[in-house]
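Below is a filled-in request sheet from our internal design queue. Each sheet records the structural input a requester submitted and the sequence that came back. We keep these sheets so that new team members can see what a complete request looks like end to end.

REQUESTER: design group, bay 2
PRIORITY: normal
MODE: inverse folding
CHAIN LENGTH: 54
BACKBONE (tokenized):
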């Protein structure tokens, strides 16, 4: 007696089948660290100068 073959994709609930899959999260770009370093340095410099003036 042959064994019944299972379907490759299991049946899904009708409402769940209508939902759209969420997009994948974008991974961080290695060049992004340079931009973050610049923003941090600029902010620190601005705060230091601002406190010296006032």
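RETURNED SEQUENCE:
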């Amino acid at each position: 007696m042959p064994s019944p073959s299972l379907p490759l994709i299991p049946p899904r609930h009708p409402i769940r089948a209508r939902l759209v899959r969420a997009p994948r999260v974008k991974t961080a770009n290695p060049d992004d660290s340079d931009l973050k370093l610049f923003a941090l340095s600029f902010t620190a410099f601005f705060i230091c100068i601002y406190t010296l003036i006032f």
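SHEET NOTES:
- The CA atoms of residues 15 and 21 lie 13 Å apart.
- The two ends are 90 Å apart (CA to CA).
FILED BY: M.R.
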